[in-house]
Amino acid sequence: MSNSSLATKAARRLASLPLKQIREAGIWRDRSSYFLNIAYPSMQAMETISCADVYPYEVNKCDQKTVALYIHIPFCTSECYYCHYYKQFGRSPEQVDTYLDAIEQELIIHKERFGKIYAASVYVGGGTPSYMTAYQVDRLFQVVNNYITLLPKAEVSFEIHPENGTLEKLRILGEQGVNRINIGVESFNDTLLVSENRRHTASEAVETFERARALGFENINLDLIYGLKDQKVFMWEESLSKVAQLLPASTTMYYLRLKRGTPEFKLWKKSPETFPSDEDLLLMHAMSFEKMEGELGYIQNPVDWFIKDDFYFHTYQDFNWRRSDEVELLGIGASSYSYVNGWQYYNINDVKLYQEFIAKKTLPIWKGEFLSNEERMRRTVMLGLKMGIDRELFYTTYETDVLEICTQTWEELSSLELIDINHKYINLTYLGKLFADEVGQKFYSDDMKRRMALVDPDLVSTTWPKFNPYR
């Protein structure tokens, strides 16, 4: 453990919390079983479905639809060793152009069904969206603007890798209305960056940030990860200190989930002693709180997102987690995720098959599930707790007081000092934020718990093509 003042402060804060009590209650986090809540249920528990299931021919057609739009760009120069998302490496500009052709056609298919499509927010992720050439970045947004109408003040986000976040691309993003840049830094330690095959240095990450800010981008988010191989507490503090120097509009600080099949997971299985211990991981987590909230005055909302003030609140994530029955999520591209008309589903996780579906004018839907009203409420609570449950909004959406569902669970969490309840909001406490995913899983229905227990624990992320049932 580090002897720094920040680490000492965080350790003292942890010592003041009833950690033993919540561990005895079955709420704890360890490397071998940590599960990140991003969907309900997990993709591994979803059934194989088709376009006809989600969008019956004469059903669900409408004149207009308001969505939070996600576009997946699955291309990268090489593999980051911890990454489990669907991607392809070293594709030619011509191959990327063909993929963009399919993106356009998928938007056309949705427009034919939905009529006019309004976007309350747009998020372009990957993969590495900045892998595209400057021309292709420009073309992507021209395509989006041809078929999507942005609502006033819509948040438009674009992910940048420091290895290819060039001045020309950033200028085009500004011209196309992008108003939020997400830079994947992951660490400000060059040794860790090399060991994770990140293909950039800490100074290059800073240069990308300063380049974007000089061009007028105010809303810049920096991604950081704790839990990497050979990462020490002092290294995490160095990254936090660099954030304090840069003072971005927001930063995300992720606990690394070790997904089976990734190089990182294999290294962990072989030499777990080379990774931070669970004790150090909890300390790093608390150090983030003490630095960002305690010293710098940032607001943690959602959990693991630290924003300079409410102006930089990440609206796309709000629609994704807390308000997805109000503004639905529409995913475009291979392996993208959607939540529409009560259906949550994933597109096929293979570029070639994705393009074959689109060529047949069929939506490339692969895995999914329709949620009952009760399960939709549980989903909203499980994910929405990460940013706070607005009780009035919940009642307006579901015509039910959120405290009337899972009453015993609310009582248990309150007695464990994990949540704070008032007449307007339900928020995670400091302690609750440390274990937000574990708290959220308390709202799984009995049927969902049973199904999740049947998931093969050795299953590699199903965003990988090797698990595609069409092969």
Short structural description:
The chain is of the alpha/beta class and 471 residues long. It contains 19 helices and 18 strands. It comes from Roseofilum halophilum BLCC-M91.
General description of the model:
Keywords: Iron, Iron-sulfur, Metal-binding, S-adenosyl-L-methionine. This is Heme chaperone HemW. InterPro entries: Aldolase_TIM (IPR013785), Coproporphyrinogen-III_oxidase (IPR034505), Elp3/MiaA/NifB-like_rSAM (IPR006638), HemN_C (IPR010723), rSAM (IPR007197), rSAM_sf (IPR058240). The chain is an alpha/beta fold. The protein has two domains: 5-40 and 373-453, Arc Repressor Mutant, subunit A, CATH 1.10.10; 43-320, Alpha-Beta Horseshoe (pyruvate-formate lyase- activating enzyme), CATH 3.80.30. The protein contains 19 helices and 18 strands. The protein has helices spanning 5-15, 19-24, 51-54, 93-114, 134-147, 167-175, 190-195, 202-214, 233-246, 263-270, 278-295, 315-321, 351-359, 373-384, 391-398, 407-415, 430-434, 436-440, 446-453, and strands at residues 47-48, 64-73, 75-76, 88-89, 116-126, 148-160, 180-186, 220-226, 250-255, 299-300, 305-307, 328-332, 337-340, 343-347, 365-370, 389-390, 419-421, 425-428. The strands form four sheets. It has a nine-stranded mixed beta sheet, with helices on both faces. It has a four-stranded antiparallel beta sheet with strand order 1-15-14-13, with no helix packed on it. A hairpin with a 3-residue loop joins strand 17 (419-421) and strand 18 (425-428). The radius of gyration is 22 Å and the shape is globular.
